[in-house]
Amino acid sequence: MLINRPLRLATVFSGIGAIEHALSKQRIDYEIVFACDNGEITLENDTQQIHKFIKNFTYDEKKAYVSKLYNLSKKTNHVKKTYFDNYKITEEQWHEDIRYIDGTKYEGIVDLFVGGSPCQSFSVIGKKGGLLDIRGSLFYDFVRLIKQIKPKVFIYENVAGMLSHDKNNTWKIISDLFETSGYKTQSFLLNAKDYGIPQNRKRVYVIGFLDHNVVMKEPEKVKDRPLSKEFLDKGKIPAHYYLGRKGFEFVTNPKYIRRAHVDPLIFQTQKANQQFNWNGDFIFEPLCKVKDRIDVLNRAYVGEWNGKSGVIRQLTHRECYRLMGFDNSFIYSNSNIQAYKQAGNSIVVNVLEKIIIEIMKVVNFDD
To answer: Given strand 280-286, what is the order of strands in its sheet?
Structure first.
C-alpha cells in the first residue's frame, strides 16, 4: 500500500542507520521521530540510582540529564557522528541511552519502530549470557518502548543463536513478551546471501503488527546470487590495505580457516573486529596486477597461494559497507577501527529492503 506522507520512523540501537538507508534505497519518504545509540560508551553511574534521581523529572529534564552524564564521560560517540553525517536529525531527536527514554512522549506518532539489541549475549562466539546479561537485558527496554510508543509496526533483529539459546527458553520468553505487548508477530530466519549480498549472515527478524488482521509473506529470495568479486573495488587499492609476511602466512594457514578466508565466493559474516588480527575475508591479487606498484611492493609480502605468486590484502572500508548493502553515497567514519566496526555491527540493508517491501504491501500507514 502507498503512503501519502513521510513514514514516521523511530529507532533504538540505531547504529549507522540500516533501516534509514533501506528506506532511501526504496525511495520511501520518511522522517525521523527519534534515534538512539550510546556508541558502546559505558557510564560509571548506577542505573537504578539514575532512575531514582530522574523519577520526577519532566521529559526534557530527563533527556538533558542523561546527555550531561554522557558528556561528562569525555568519550566520543563515534556511531552518533556517522549517523549525523548521513541522516537529517537534530540533537532534540537523538537519545544517548535506551534505558532512560520516556516512550510516552511518542505514543501514537510512530509508524515504524526498529531495533536490534546487542547480540553478544546470544551469539555462538559470545559468552551466551542471554537475558541475564546486561546487554541482553536491554531487550526489556525495547519491549517497554513498544508498549509506550504503540507503533503501527516494529522490526526486531538479532542473531540466529537467540532461537536456540538456553534450550529454546530464551526465545519462548522473548516471543511471549512480544505477544503480551499487544502485537501480532511473525518471525523469519533470513540469510543475507539470499537477498543480493554475498555474505553468509543469518539473522532472526521479528515483525510486529498493531493490527492483528495483517498477514505478511516471507520476503522473496533473489533468484541470482551475486558473487563476492562483484562487490570489490575496481580501481587502485591504497597500499596500506596489503598484508606483510606475518599476515600473509596467517590467513593462508589452514589451521586458521575458521578465522580467515582468502577469495571466498561468499564472504563470512562481517564482524565488528573484522580485518584486525587477520580476522575475516581477504583478497589475493596475482603479482602481475601489482608489479608496477612500488608502494604496494614496499609494504606487501609476495608469497605463494594456490600455486600462484602474489599478494594478499584486506577488504577496503567501502567494500565492507557494500557487503552490508550500503551504496557508495554512504559516509563512513574516518577512523580505521570505527569504520570496520560500525559496518560489522550493522543490519544488512538489502534484507531490510525486502522486509519493508512486504510490510508496505499489507499495512495501511495512512489509516
So the answer is: 260-262, 280-286, 308-314, 303-305
Cα gap 50→66, rounded to integer Å:
9
Q: Which of 330, 367, 324, 328 is nearest to 348 (CA)?
A: 324
Cell reading at 346 = 550493522
Answer yes or no: pTM beyond 0.85.
yes
3-state secondary structure of 252: coil
10 Å Cβ neighbour count for 89? 19
* Cβ count near 17 (within 10 Å): 29
How many residues would you count in the chain?
A: 367
Q: Which residue would you say has higher pLDDT here, 179 or 327?
A: 327
Beta bridge partners of 114: 11, 155
pLDDT for position 357:
97
Cell of 40: 558502546
From residue 173, alpha-carbon distances to 40, 246, 345 in Å are: 26, 46, 25
Torsion angle in degrees (nearest 10) through CA of 336, 136, 129, 259? -30
DSSP alpha helix (H) spans, 158-284: 161-164, 169-180, 245-251
Element (H, E) at 359: helix 349-362
Question: What would the grid cell of residue 182 be?
Answer: 499487544
Name the E strands within 219-354: 260-262, 280-286, 303-305, 308-314
